[in-house]
Each structure stands twice: as C-alpha cells, then as structure tokens.
C-alpha cells in the first residue's frame, strides 16, 4: 500500500482484492490478523481459497453482484465490524475492499437530528 502510506499503520485491517478475489494489498493490521494463514504471503493469492463453504459461495456472489456487505462478529471475546464493499477506479469496478475494525465492548450510539 505504498501509494497511500497512511493506511499501512491504520488501526483497522484493510484487505483489497481484484474482481476475481485475488488479494492485491494488505495493511499491517491485515497481515497480522491473517498471520496464521500466511500473512503477507497471501498477496497475489485468491481469498476465496481461504473461505470454507458456505462463506466461499457468499463471497463469490458479493464479488459478482458488487453489493456491500456489513456485519459484526465476535471472536475470542473481541467484537469486530466487518465492512466489505466494491471499489472503483476511474468509474471501473476493480474489486472489493474489506475493513475489519475492532469494537469496544460498550460504545455510545448517537441519533443525529437534522
């Protein structure tokens, strides 16, 4: 992610893939999060190979449909927000980006009024 050095040490995991699911970029947090699966060695591999069914089929459908997918998970007591969305360059679909953000156990929720 040399073009955008700020993202390299961003607190959330950022993983970028092409339309076929080939991982193009991972920031430091993403490399660390996927260390057991290969870390930085995952770049240039297909992220679909990292997903068991039925997640693999759902991920393939997201890549094909270009739909945003947002959900939360909890793993080893840590809650995370997962945000998966298509990315574009010069108006052309270029693949997907996944942001994984650790969430605090308790956090405020504000309703903003116009």
Describe the protein in words:
Strands 2-1-5-4-3 form a 5-stranded antiparallel sheet. It is built from 3 helices and 5 strands; from the N terminus they run H-E-E-H-H-E-E-E. The mean pLDDT is 95. The radius of gyration is 15 Å and the shape is globular. The chain has one domain: PAS domain (Beta-Lactamase, 2-Layer Sandwich), CATH 3.30.450.20. Strand 3 and strand 4 (78-89) form a beta hairpin. The chain has helices at 5-8, 28-33, 55-65, and strands at 13-17, 23-26, 69-75, 78-89, 92-103.
Task: Describe the protein's topology.
Layout: H1 5-8, E1 13-17, E2 23-26, H2 28-33, H3 55-65, E3 69-75, E4 78-89, E5 92-103
- Which stretches are poorly predicted, pLDDT < 50 over at least 5 residues? none
- In CATH, what is the class? Alpha Beta
Give the number of DSSP strands: 5
CATH homologous superfamily assignment: PAS domain
CATH topology: the name is Beta-Lactamase
- Which percent band covers the strand fraction? 35-45%
Biggest sheet strand order reads 2-1-5-4-3
Round the mean pLDDT to the nearest integer and report it.
Answer: 95
- For the terminal residues, how far apart are their CA atoms? 38 Å
Helical content band: 10-25%
Q: Largest sheet, if any?
A: 5 strands, antiparallel
């Amino acid at each position: 992610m040399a073009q955008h050095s700020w993202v390299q040490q961003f607190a959330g995991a950022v993983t970028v893939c092409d339309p076929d699911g080939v991982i193009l970029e991972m920031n430091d947090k993403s490399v660390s999060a996927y260390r057991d699966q290969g870390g930085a060695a995952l770049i240039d591999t297909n992220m679909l190979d990292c997903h068991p069914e039925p997640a693999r089929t759902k991920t393939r459908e997201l890549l094909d449909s270009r739909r945003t997918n947002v959900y939360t998970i909890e793993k080893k007591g840590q809650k995370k927000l997962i945000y998966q969305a298509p990315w574009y360059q010069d108006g052309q679909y270029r693949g997907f980006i996944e942001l994984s953000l650790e969430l605090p156990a308790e956090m405020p929720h504000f309703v903003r009024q116009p």
